[in-house]
Amino acid sequence: MPEFYLDTLANSLRLITVEMPHLHSVEAACTLAVGSRHEQPQLAGISHFLEHLLFRGSADYPSSQDLESRFEAIGGNINAGTDAETTCYHSRLHPDHIGDGLHLFASMLQRPLLKDIDIERRIILEEAQEDLNQDSEVISPDQLMSGLLWPEHPLSQPTIGRPDSIAAIGAAELSDHHRRYYTPANAVIALAGRIERSAALAAVTEAFGSWQGPPAPAALPLIDQPASGPASHWVIDADSQLNLQLAFRIPGRRNPHTPALRMLRRVLSGGGTTRLMQRLRENLGLTYNAEAHLSLFDDSGAFAVDLAVTPENLLPAITELLTIFSELTCEEVGDGELARVRANYLFDLEFSRDHADLLAARYGWGLATGFLRSLEDERLESSAITPEEMLLAAQEHFTAENLHLVVVGPYGEKDQDKVEALLATFRR
To answer: Of the candidates 317, 332, 330, which has an alpha carbon nearest to the alpha carbon of residue 267?
Structure first.
């Protein structure tokens, strides 16, 4: 059985169907290729704001209570999320009510009332406070790192927006944003679960076939900037620990080194035997947890490590982190270690076949971003990665010029001076 089927309606709306006949539900995901990187600075957060408002009611279901109670009546629980490049609305549905669920999605996406804007604005401003301290300074390492990696570009903007930009968003701006980006050519419907391709195509055509609209505007491209690291950003915050994020700016997901970088992330993070946990926690006792992340956009990305430490462990933790990355640029990952992390990765790919929500999100996001890849594609790709390729990827991207650090918490000036001096020595 194919992993998925892909169909395109006459109005350019794309449908992905994942047949999983052994399940008792269907996961529906409606993904649009619009996010924070499609926004102007003065309206930062408008994609997320619009996502919230679609839950406030549509022409057919004029209140949030009407809309959400209809989803609940067919086994659903509607939710959504916005990131830099996409906005996704999703819900589990009972297989006998796929048509009903798709009509609810169609009403939300095509005919929102965009009402209660000021009420929703207050809610979003409250949400935004989670990333600010008592002095209204940003304390989110992710936000601060984005500003270091992609200055003066929409990728540096918080997805939720800033208090001033959230305050500037009004009905006219929201309506225009919806008109420009909520179009069939910019959308993907993914259905995964107990449903057949023919039934999925018929139901989606009935619910969305009359939807019309032009192609959406392209995102602002990222102008290639010369690497300027090592660079760091420090924010004093009253806490018992320091929150650290160390990141290397890397190319986008289409770069030929991306598969090797994915495997390097698994070498560092993903289980108790990986290098970050063994070195920073088990051997040195510097932190409770350390995780590596690979964030990939169409034309850029970041290979990052997050951890929290007490102030006295700041310098030892940074020293060990830089040592770990330096080793990756000097020594090939051993065959035994690579075999272990590769096997773990392949198991994760296989386990994902049991989760309709993961598959709907994976394939919907992949098609919306122009990077649709099957599980088999990734299995074959990861199976072919060699230690030599991983070493070359590390040498190419884990450089002083690509190195950035964010520190938030109760640090001292001497700590900052020592850490910045240490950063300056990386791979010199």
So the answer is: 332
Smallest CA-to-CA distance from 295 within 46, 85, 44 is with 85
Residue 389 is inside which H or E element, if any? helix 387-397
Long-range contacts of 163-167 (CB under 8 A, 24+ apart): 163/125, 163/128, 163/136, 165/41, 165/42, 165/43, 165/44, 165/45, 165/46, 166/45, 166/49, 166/121, 166/124, 166/125, 166/128, 167/121, 167/125
Average pLDDT rounded to a whole number, residues 301-325: 97
Per-residue pLDDT for 419 more than 80?
yes
Classified as helix, coil or strand, 168 is helix
Strand, helix or coil for residue 134: coil
Q: Quickly tell me which residue has 């993904």 as its tokens.
A: 31
Determine contact, residues 298/369, Cβ cutoff 8 Å.
Answer: yes
pLDDT digit string (tens) for 20-52? 999 999 999 999 999 999 999 999 999 999 999
Give dist(CA 89, CA 81) in Å, integer: 7
* 408 φ, ψ (degrees, to nearest 5): -130, 125
Choose among 388, 279, 391, 274: nearest CA to 329: 391
Return d(Cα 39, Cα 156) in angstroms, integer: 11
Residue 164 tokens, joined = 């001033």
**Which one, of 360, 413, 281, lies nearest residue 23 by Cα?**
360
The residue assigned the tokens 């910019």 is 186
Report which DSSP code applies to 153: S
Q: Supply the DSSP string of 230-244, one letter for each residue.
A: SEEEEEE--SSSEEE
For residue 224, is pLDDT > 80? no
Q: Residue 220 above 90 pLDDT?
A: no
* Residue partners of 219: CB distance under 8 A and separation at least 6: 37, 38, 85, 154, 298
Q: At which residue do the structure tokens 């169907």 appear?
A: 17
Q: Is 49 helix (H, G, I), strand (E, B) or coil?
A: helix
Strand pairing report for 403-409 and 231-236: parallel
For residue 228, pLDDT over 80 is answered with no
